[in-house]
Design brief:
- The chain is mostly helical.
- It has one domain: MetI-like (MetI-like fold), CATH 1.10.3720.
- The longest helix is centred in the N-terminal third of the chain and has 36 residues.
- It is elongated and about 80 Å long.
Length: 290
């Protein structure tokens, strides 16, 4: 019986993978994200490994064979700075996703399953969502002080309520299904039902939401860093690179265009990845396509 169940689950997984690979948005998004991640991970191999090394005599060199992304006003290699800056931007985005996964699941599950907690938790979420996301993040970052940790906290506070509401909506549906009632009738307690039967069946919309949160976090981190509310200027990030290059945009367009292009490619890839996951995992999309 266990072997048959394992084969059945394995067949389900293979079917899911085939559906994902047939989805054009997922394939294109995954390819773009993989290229960005591979370039960032191989930064020590692809560059000289010193994004902050000064070479005044090499300042404002346009993109060429020696400097694929040119140099900045201090002669620093922009190719190295863009790749190493991507490490910090994606690291901040990843931490925001982790905090969203932990606290979004916790708040969404409690609000959706326990009716007495639904009102207070969702009113708090509504209060946070009433503010424009970027403005709220700017306010929190300004109050806490500029740092990478502050950027993570500010962006997590902004996006956790949205993740919690999406998970809550799924929990409200799943908790009324027959197998949940059957488990409750068999004597299972609420926590067992919630973690064993309800949450595992709410993961599909959560994965889709987290992929979008990752894209929003990368873009919002660039905004915070551009305004001086993210990582310190000594640590390159995409937002800082754009902020540093805006004063020289007439004579050195590559200082802003190339980091901006890196942000655009990353956000586009993550959004396409999320669209593909939604098309494949969302039951409503399956019904519409069939």
């Amino acid at each position: 019986m266990a072997t048959a169940s394992g084969l059945f689950l394995s067949e389900q997984n293979r079917f899911l993978v085939r559906r994902l690979l047939r989805n054009r948005a997922f394939v294109v998004g995954a390819t773009l994200v993989a290229i960005v991640l591979l370039a960032i991970l191989l930064a020590p191999v692809l560059t000289n490994g010193e994004p902050n090394r000064l070479a005044i005599r090499m300042r404002f060199r346009p993109p060429s064979g020696d400097f694929p992304f040119g140099t900045d006003n201090l002669g620093r290699d922009m190719f190295a700075r863009v790749l190493y800056g991507g490490r910090l931007s994606l690291e901040i985005g990843l931490w925001v996703v982790v905090l969203n996964a932990v606290f979004g699941i916790l708040l969404g599950a409690l609000a959706g399953y326990f009716q007495r907690l639904d009102g207070p938790l969702m009113r708090l979420a509504d209060a946070l969502m009433a503010f424009p996301s970027v403005l709220l993040a700017i306010g929190i970052a300004a109050a806490l002080g500029a740092s990478a940790t502050t950027a993570v906290i500010a962006l997590a506070v902004v996006y956790i309520p949205r993740t919690a509401r999406i998970l809550r909506a799924s929990v409200l549906v799943v908790r009324e299904l027959d197998y949940v009632h059957a488990s409750r009738a068999a004597g299972a307690n609420d926590w067992h039902i919630l973690f064993r039967h309800v949450l595992p069946n709410c993961m599909a919309p959560l994965l889709v939401q987290l992929s979008f949160v990752f894209a929003y976090a990368v873009l919002s981190e660039a905004v915070l860093s551009f305004l001086g509310l993210g990582a310190p200027p000594t640590v390159p990030s995409w937002g800082i690179l754009i902020a540093e290059g805006r004063s020289y945009i007439r004579e050195a367009w590559w200082l802003t265009v190339l980091p901006g292009t890196a942000i655009a490619i990353t956000v586009l890839g993550l959004n396409l990845l999320g669209d593909g996951l939604r098309d494949v995992l969302d039951p409503r999309m399956k019904i519409e396509q069939s």
